[in-house]
Amino acid sequence: MKATLTSKGQITIPIAIREKLGLKPGDQIEFDENATILVGRRVVNPAEWSETLADWRHAAGEALAGHPWSDVSVAELIDDLRGGPADSAAAVSGSQP
After folding, report:
1. Is the confidence at residue 96, as pLDDT, over 80?
2. Are 13 and 27 contacting, i.e. CB atoms less than 8 angstroms apart?
3. Full residue range of the structural domain in which residue 60 is found
4. Maximum CA pair distance of the chain?
């Protein structure tokens, strides 16, 4: 995809890229001046990011409500998925329980 630089140093980001990245008017793009190629990244607003994470946590909490794993720690969940504790003495020594 190509864009042409104007005499004022401006470019128009093609709509396909704007849509893919969710860019909208007012969004900021940060350029990596140390890169050997032109690299631009959307600047994420910390407040928007926090709000998105809070929304995700809320949705995940609702989805897990009443599920057997809702009150299980991550370590316990991983052990359950693996079929037992990964760091047990049997696992470390290689013997069968």
Report:
1. no
2. no
3. 46-92
4. 74
